[in-house]
Amino acid sequence: MAASRAPSAWELSRQRRASRPPPSVIAQPDTGPQHSTTQDSELYLPDLLLYPVNFSPLATTLATGLVAEGIPHSNLFAVFSPDGHVFQVEYAMEAVKRGTCAVGVKGKDVVVLGCEKRSALKLQDTRITPSKIAMVDNHAVLAFAGLNADARILIDKARLEAQSHRLTVEDPVTIEYITKYIAGVQQRYTQSGGVRPFGISTLVVGFDPNDKTPRLYQTEPSGIYSAWKANAIGRSSKTVREFLERNHQEDMDREQTIQLTIKSLLEVVQTGAKNIEVAIMSPGKSIEMLPDDQIESYVKSIETEKQEEAAKKKTGRGGTTTAAILTRPGGGEGSESRE
């Protein structure tokens, strides 16, 4: 005797339709979109195609790929609004702007990543607190701003691709290659059904194999990637980027690059060294995380420099004011003694 076969979805759908009366064909007044009480988990694709009016507009849209009437475009995935926006991508970019700040700066033979980190809670175990800086391969590192959970998934995908490339080609990935891969993953999640875009931007840095030229790239939730000399992502990134534009110089050495990175972060970080982490990449070397005591010394040096500059400006303004008082129009210096 042949083994019994489980009924297919189409057969189950036919059995369900046979056990219920056919849909009414009497015209009904248009009262707006009607939502069915049937649970979406009980729906079959043939039911949606044959009797779409009996089910929710969202279920019809997800099953058929057609935008059902009554669903806001902001609630759909990978659908353009009438004015050409993909709102889910724009919402993902807003999530990036709400994330902590991350900065990348290239020097002559070094590239530095600096990130703002949130303060740990009193009972939190700081040993397993996720960092904003992650190593993709021995020569490639990225920092991110946005949702930590999204970053964890994207970093795992990038690491897997880097190891697969190493096993297949027997050569490490270039920084541009892994950046393209990360941007490609982000882009695919903007045009696929049933998923949402990654709510993160990344700064990818490192050195290509047998090359001493520092690399710095940025990726965005939309899938765009670009190369930079210095850049910032996350909250107040515009302010930090303007600071970098004013102070960045070509061919900076290691100390100057580290100092500029920390100084730019201090534009938005008000709590000092305890909320800053710094990673340094050099040719032929793995990632170097700057110890907290060294970050503290850099912060103290920068604050002392700022105080000295403020004192000089104050002294200069004071001398100018005194000279203006002693020198008056028509009388010259010492005119007050002749009054």
Automatic annotation (TrEMBL):
Q: Which GO terms describe its biological process?
A: ubiquitin-dependent protein catabolic process
Location(s) in or outside the cell? Cytoplasm
Q: Which domain of life is it from?
A: Eukaryota
UniProt-annotated stretches for the region Disordered: 1-39, 308-339
Q: Which family does it belong to?
A: Belongs to the peptidase T1A family.
**Entry-linked Pfam families:** Proteasome, Proteasome_A_N
Report the principal subcellular site. cytoplasm
Protein's recorded name: Proteasome alpha-type subunits domain-containing protein
Comp. bias regions, Gly residues: 329-339
Q: Which UniProt keywords apply?
A: Cytoplasm, Proteasome
Q: Per the database record, which ranges form the Proteasome alpha-type subunits domain?
A: 73-95
Q: Which GO terms describe its cellular component?
A: cytoplasm; proteasome core complex, alpha-subunit complex
